[in-house]
Amino acid sequence: MSQEFTFSDPGEGLQEAEVLEIHVEEGAHVNDGDTVLTVETDKAATDIPAPFTGTVDKVHVKAGDVIRVDDVLLSYSPEGDERQPEAKEGDDKRDEGRGEPSDRETEETDDEKRKEPREERKEPREERKGRRQTPVPASPSTRRIAHERGIDLRDVEPSGPQGRVTTEDVEAASRGETRKRERREPSPLPDFSRWGETERQPMRSVRRVTAERMTQSWQEVPHVFHQDVADITELEHFRHEYEASAQANGGKFTLTILVMKALVFAMKRFPRFNASLDVESQEIVLKHYYNIGMAVATDRGLLVPVIRDVDRKNLIELTEAVSTTVEKARNGELRREDMEGGSMTLTNPGPLGGTALAPLINLPEVAILGLGQARLQPVVHGDLEDYEIKPRRMLPLSLGFDHRVNDGADAANFVTALIGALEDPQSLLLRI
């Protein structure tokens, strides 16, 4: 009998994905664990393995489709599955005589249960709370997602075996809570075709996820921006001096690499910028690791892979790590875990132009640093009575920070420490 294989959350709180590639055809035989689809989930390509051994009866999706949790991907017949002969009239009567439901009655009952609204099958919340005094069975990733969503696992109706709460259960509970909050509905759009020819393009996975994340960041975080400029003339001399050696050992020795090191120095002096805010418990989570997110522009959109342990890597190791990560991002080879666990994000659109920017914080971080274009500028040294003008390479800096965690004075001191490290590269090497 044909069965359905549905899309399920692999344990990271996913709600939807875009189908990138289909690896099987109808009528094909697959083994348990064979890759049947590749989807893009939350900016990372993920292979979907078959949880069965059998024959593919029908493929319900195509490349480019956006699928959600519980959508049917494939219909299949398990290996060794044989159709049972149809029941004869006498068999039906014998079933009725024994008072046991027939197969058909059982199927109809199951169908009715599936159609029954989930809310009608739920137990009252207070009864569930009273019964669950022991820890609720759930995986670590499910617990993390519940914590991030502010969901109490004791309030979630479990659907897993032996009362286990799954990620899908947490997401369903989260959506229920979200619906309770007031939301501003988007304003209706006019008919643009009245003024000329138009074209519509779907927002695919990366662009769609970016839009959702940035909307969430802007709505939830009180952003404040502190801007300044750093004199990186000496830093550029240092970079050019060691550029050939760094490239021979690892990759392109860019300004971004040196700024990452300076960021670590400033974060160590001001640890509340290397933090996250736990709104539920009203606690600031201070991190004792230094993983820097790096915004990378790709053909598919903006991705933010994380360079881990920046404080422990020397310049050659950091150059190699950054070069490898950028290549993976542009080739679509990043995994989901490559974009998790960041301490703070660095975005550098400067090479493309621009004197300033106001970058949005990458939740659940509390700060982001944006770099403008470094330019050679006349800079006045001295005072009104005795001064001179020198050409210096100046780098615009823009620190976006969460005002719930840090104040304006904190941001000013952070950026001042950062500038001091950038303007004195020899001292920076000693500090890092």
From TrEMBL:
Boundaries of every Lipoyl-binding domain copy: 2-77
Peripheral subunit-binding (PSBD) domain sequence ranges: 137-174
InterPro entries, per database record: 2-oxoA_DH_lipoyl-BS, 2-oxoacid_DH_actylTfrase, 2-oxoacid_DH_E2_comp, Biotin_lipoyl, CAT-like_dom_sf, E3-bd_dom_sf, PSBD, Single_hybrid_motif
Residue ranges, compositional bias (Basic and acidic residues): 80-104, 111-129, 145-157, 172-186
Molecular function terms from GO: acyltransferase activity
Source domain of life: Bacteria
E.C. number(s) listed in UniProt: 2.3.1.-
Cofactor requirements of the protein: (R)-lipoate
SUPFAM superfamilies: CoA-dependent acyltransferases, Peripheral subunit-binding domain of 2-oxo acid dehydrogenase complex, Single hybrid motif
Reactions accelerated catalytically: N(6)-[(R)-dihydrolipoyl]-L-lysyl-[protein] + acetyl-CoA = N(6)-[(R)-S(8)-acetyldihydrolipoyl]-L-lysyl-[protein] + CoA
Annotated region (Disordered), positions in chain: 75-199
Function in brief: The pyruvate dehydrogenase complex catalyzes the overall conversion of pyruvate to acetyl-CoA and CO(2). It contains multiple copies of three enzymatic components: pyruvate dehydrogenase (E1), dihydrolipoamide acetyltransferase (E2) and lipoamide dehydrogenase (E3).
Family under the similarity heading: Belongs to the 2-oxoacid dehydrogenase family.
Assembly behavior: Forms a 24-polypeptide structural core with octahedral symmetry.
Protein's name according to its UniProt entry: Dihydrolipoamide acetyltransferase component of pyruvate dehydrogenase complex
